[in-house]
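Blinded run. Sample ID left blank on purpose so nobody reads anything into the name before looking at the predicted structure. Input follows.
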Amino acid sequence: MTTIHETMISIGESARSASRTLALASANTKNNALQLIATAIRQNQSAILRANAEDLTEAKQKNISAAFLDRLALNAERIEAMAKGLEEIAALPDPIGTILADIHRPNGLEIKRIRVPIGVIGVIYESRPNVTADAAGLCLKSGNAVILRGGSESFHSSSAILQAIQQGLLKAELPTTAIQMIPTSDRAAVSEMLKMDKYIDVIIPRGGQQLIERIAAESRIPLFKHLAGLCHTYLHQAADKEMARKIVLNAKMRRTGICGATETLLVDQTIVNSHLPSILDDLIKAGCEIRGDQQVMKLDSRVKPANEQDYETEYLDAVIAVKVVKDLSAAIEHIAIYGTQHTEAIITDDKTAAEKFLREVDSAIVMHNTSTQFADGGEFGMGAEIGIATGKLHARGPVGVEQLTTFKYWVLGDGQLRI
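Blinded prediction complete.
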């Protein structure tokens, strides 16, 4: 009987071999494969939905939250979005081979910095099965092999999507081992994966804080880390009332379970009475629970008291913390203390205040007069993303095609010797 260790080594070896093929594949070859994978996903829609129904049934038996079920659920529209995402990735410029710098030295040497694939990417994610397609597409486009490890709750869905992906690779005459998924939900496989620095060049974790902290503690492999999406929206004293009302409702309630959903609303004390009552009413009518400080509680009897933990929580649910702050500087200070360097937004008609916020807030994504729900690689024109990196090395913000590349130097001479 093959052990988990043996299985993982086999996956790693075949991924490394496939990565060498992908690194040399032409743009046309990769784009054709992406188109064929998109077609296969559409053709396998029924099988994917059956697998997803199985996952949903098992999740409901475990009394999983509604927000979690929303992230797990697939339907025809979401499957079509996966296929379209792959086609959008195919339409992007191929980054591989781009000359990033061309340096001519006095001794006649020409030094070129060339964009190249990273090699083998490991992606560990939780409930969203669409990540299977997004990660596969982005890694393929950037010339990388990928080893996927989806959550146990989405195991059947991700497996069905992978079958469609490998059908597309086969038709494109690319190695099916370029995109693999760990064939077990046993957590021991993750521990093995995190030791495979001989085969995997970078790990991208996508999930809750506990998952990411565990991976960061155990991994021998560098991470594109996404700690949490504790996103803030700040209503400045010069915020347009109706704009603020619409943006806050969208930023919190469009999809509560995504990492770009606003979790804390900060409100300038000068506009509490004029702006906040209608915003609270909109949120409550939409099914959102409000947890606020004393000033917020005075405005609406339906508001529950907030404690310190509420300002430290990524709810991923229809719950929002609301706090009144003295001014712009106090809002920036609050974000510096409680934020996770993901996405923050200011709503204001004051350009000077907006520029101060954009300059001083140290997050991967900072926004002015728009919803934090735009924190998404697809919305940034990247076709799709593997996640939002909140670290500061190599990749920050949406991790798309370019972020999955590195570079090497070509040094071109005609006989120069170093003296």
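Unblinding after everyone has recorded impressions. The chain has a mean pLDDT of 94.
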